[in-house]
From TrEMBL:
<dbReference type="Pfam" id="PF00990">
    <property type="entry name" value="GGDEF"/>
</dbReference>
<feature type="signal peptide">
    <location>
        <begin position="1"/>
        <end position="25"/>
    </location>
</feature>
<dbReference type="InterPro" id="IPR050469">
    <property type="entry name" value="Diguanylate_Cyclase"/>
</dbReference>
<keyword id="KW-1133">Transmembrane helix</keyword>
<keyword id="KW-0472">Membrane</keyword>
<keyword id="KW-0812">Transmembrane</keyword>
<keyword id="KW-0732">Signal</keyword>
<feature type="domain" description="GGDEF">
    <location>
        <begin position="450"/>
        <end position="584"/>
    </location>
</feature>
<feature type="transmembrane region" description="Helical">
    <location>
        <begin position="390"/>
        <end position="407"/>
    </location>
</feature>
<dbReference type="InterPro" id="IPR029787">
    <property type="entry name" value="Nucleotide_cyclase"/>
</dbReference>
<protein>
    <recommendedName>
        <fullName>diguanylate cyclase</fullName>
        <ecNumber>2.7.7.65</ecNumber>
    </recommendedName>
</protein>
<dbReference type="InterPro" id="IPR000160">
    <property type="entry name" value="GGDEF_dom"/>
</dbReference>
<dbReference type="InterPro" id="IPR043128">
    <property type="entry name" value="Rev_trsase/Diguanyl_cyclase"/>
</dbReference>
Length: 596
């Protein structure tokens, strides 16, 4: 399986989850302890210890053989054989009676699954490990489990759980190194929850990591401090902070960290209008950072290069960078959705498992009652009615619970189907479902020679709202716009969000004038949105509209969308807050995204 560098941090945590077990006075035990002590610091010595263990394993105890197999699974993992490592660790998990070995094996599988992006397996094994945590006698091993949980839950976007386990580790007084990483994970979780820690809290966390010479978490924390300063308008201070630590960041040779810092510097230099430095750091983020397409630093780097190319009037480069930015942003959103779906699915599976246990316990109770009745048949005369009623009640309970969970499963399936079709922020169709429905409607219109019209709109200056007032305000604006435009639609019209601040309305049976009337109603409703409650106030909410009809474009969705899109970008180019119609003989402009 293709090696995924983006998760190397998770596998590094797994190193510490394989803690040494109790020592025994034997050559095998001594070699096991040797392998445990060097597994994360000296690969050659680790391999030599495993070779020595293979030569004398015939005299090993079953427990020692299981520990050796787990160490070999770890060795396969760090050399990139993730499938083999996962298979061996799962075998140890199934066979080992020792709770500590089960715990370590489950944590290793969870880390390997995070690397290979087998999200369901990773969450399932993580939860299995956490269910064993209270039974693990080794305090340090238990703490490492909490650390792995915080890392993985943050990676899966479950920041509330990541914060819970990070703070649990901090409260239990673990080792100084664990405290440093727990501080960094807590700050990361709070940032993901849009409730960033205060400046003093971040500085305390950096001090804790500096005390342990942990440069990677310390500089990840500086990245969050820089974000806080930039949000407060201290962009120059944020740049100075990150630039002053670039040498030690580069010395870590950690792609994830280098990509994070360079992408932040690229964005801050762009905001400061230093295009030369901004472009340099954007390229370094792409070259030195993690190469996985779905990571945010790559999205940011391509967006910065696209905006710089626009400012330089380099249209060819701008178009290329915009395409790469759009692809990276879509990959990132798909990754987020996949992890969210895996988390919801794992929670559902856990509920089903718990319910199955409850049903089994109920069936065992029924069986026990039957056995008691058979053993005491001579005493049934007085108690038979009572026992029969209890038996019927238990059976009804089992049937009722089964019916309830069948209903719940159906509801969950419907919820997952809705999530695949509806934009979670605005509640309207997402891009994929809108397109599928639009193609179906257009095919029906073509079959009966019925005209249809498409309206595309893109909010004007939306990026300024996000930059000045934050993403929470931007999300509020998108919801208000969706409600206003939905009210402008006719009955039977399709309405969807295509991504970012772009929306579309398909009106079957409508012509180009119908599309213009719908667009005009949208403009009026957008102008009526009351944003007075926003701190500092925001400018009037406007959009640029492009309209096209099947009369000129045909019933192909691609052709209809292309002409409406060009008309919309013509509206942008002509000054925004206006409606432009597709005209058959009008020259076709180059489609370039104009920054909101």
């Amino acid at each position: 399986m293709k090696q995924r560098k983006v998760q190397k941090g998770l596998l590094a945590i797994a190193l510490f989850a394989l803690l040494p077990l109790s020592a025994m006075a034997s050559d095998i035990e001594a070699l096991l302890q040797k392998a445990e002590s060097v597994r994360s610091t000296d690969p050659k010595a680790f391999a030599a210890a495993l070779t020595g263990l293979d030569e004398i394993k015939a005299s090993a105890t079953p427990r020692q053989l299981r520990q050796l197999r787990l160490l070999k699974a770890y060795q396969k993992g760090i050399t990139g054989n993730y499938d083999g490592a996962t298979k061996d660790a799962l075998a140890v998990l199934d066979e080992a009676p020792e709770v500590s070995l089960q715990f370590r094996a489950a944590l290793l599988v969870a880390n390997l699954a995070a690397i290979t992006r087998d999200f369901s397996l990773g969450l399932r094994e993580l939860e299995k490990a956490l269910s064993l945590a209270d039974q693990v006698p080794e305090t340090e091993l238990r703490h490492q489990g909490y650390l792995v949980a915080a890392v993985i839950y943050n990676q899966y976007g479950q920041f509330a759980l990541g914060q819970h386990y990070a703070e649990r580790l901090l409260a239990q007084g673990s080792s100084p190194r664990n405290q440093c990483i727990a501080h960094q994970l807590r700050v990361e979780a709070l940032y993901g929850l849009n409730a960033p820690d205060d400046e003093a809290g971040i500085n305390d966390a950096i001090a804790a990591c500096n005390g342990q010479h942990e440069t990677i978490p310390a500089n990840l924390l500086r990245g969050y401090l820089a974000r806080r300063w930039a949000a407060d308008g201290k962009t120059s201070q944020a740049i100075d902070l990150l630039e002053s630590h670039l040498p030690e960041i580069k010395a870590t040779k950690y792609p994830w960290l280098m990509g994070e810092i360079h992408s932040l510097l690229a964005e801050y230099y762009l905001n400061s209008r230093n295009l030369v430095e901004s472009k340099d750091h954007a390229h370094r983020a792409l070259e030195e950072g993690d190469k996985n397409a779905y990571l945010l630093p790559r999205v940011t780097a391509h967006r910065v290069l696209y905006e710089i190319a626009l400012k330089d009037n380099d249209l060819s480069t701008a178009l290329s960078e915009y395409r790469q930015y759009a692809e990276a942003d879509k990959a990132r959103l798909d990754e987020v959705k996949a992890r969210e779906f895996a988390f919801q699915l794992s929670r559902h599976e856990l509920q089903q498992k718990n319910q199955a246990i409850e049903l089994l316990q109920g069936q065992n109770d029924v069986l026990r009652l039957k056995q008691e009745v058979a053993a005491k048949s001579e005493q049934v005369a007085k108690k038979s009615a009572q026992n029969n009623r209890l038996l019927v009640a238990m059976l009804l309970l089992v049937l009722g619970v089964g019916a309830y969970w069948a209903y719940k499963i159906k509801r969950v399936q419907m919820m997952f189907r809705k999530q695949a079709q509806v934009d979670s922020l605005t509640g309207i169709f997402n891009r994929g479902h809108f397109r599928a429905q639009a193609e179906t409607q257009l095919a029906r219109c073509a079959a009966v020679e019925r005209e249809a019209a498409l309206v595309l709109l893109d909010l004007d200056n939306f990026k300024r709202i996000n930059d000045r007032h934050g993403h929470a305000t931007g999300d509020w604006v998108l919801r208000q716009v969706a409600a206003a435009c939905h009210a402008s639609c006719r009955e039977g019209d399709l309405f969807g969000r295509l991504g970012g601040e772009e929306f579309a309305i398909l009106s079957c049976g409508g012509d180009l004038h119908t599309a213009e009337r719908i667009a005009q109603k949208c403009r009026e409703y957008l102008a009526a949105i009351d944003a007075s409650a926003i701190d500092g106030g925001i400018p009037a909410i406007t959009a640029s509209f492009g309209c096209a009809s099947t009369k000129l474009c045909g019933h192909s969705f691609e052709q209809l969308f292309m002409h409406a899109d060009r008309a919309m970008y013509r509206a942008k180019a002509e000054g925004r807050d206006r409606i432009c119609m597709h005209e058959e003989n009008r020259p076709v402009p180059l489609r370039l995204h104009v920054p909101a």
